[in-house]
Specification:
The protein is mainly alpha-helical and about 70 residues long. The protein has one domain. The protein has helices at about 5-20, 30-45, 55-70; strands at about 25-30, 50. A two-stranded parallel sheet has the order 1-2. β1 (about 25-30), α2 and β2 form a beta-alpha-beta unit.
Length: about 70
Amino acid sequence: MKDSQFIANILIEAVELVGPENVVQVITDNATVCRAAGLIVEGKYQHIFWTPCVVHSLNLMLSKLGKQIEWI
C-alpha cells in the first residue's frame, strides 16, 4: 500500500543517495498522501522543504475552471 510513510521512505532514500547537503526541496503532486510524506521529510531534514508541483496545481485549477465554463 502506498501510504505517506511509503512515499516518504522513497524520498528519504533519494535524498540519502545524493546527500542531504545537496537537497533543499522535494516536489510532489498535491495528493494528501504526498503532502503528508513531504511533512515527514521536512521533519527528518530541517533544511529541506516540500513544494507542490506547479503543473499539477495548474492542471487541477484548469480542470475545475473548464467544468464551470463551457467554452474552455
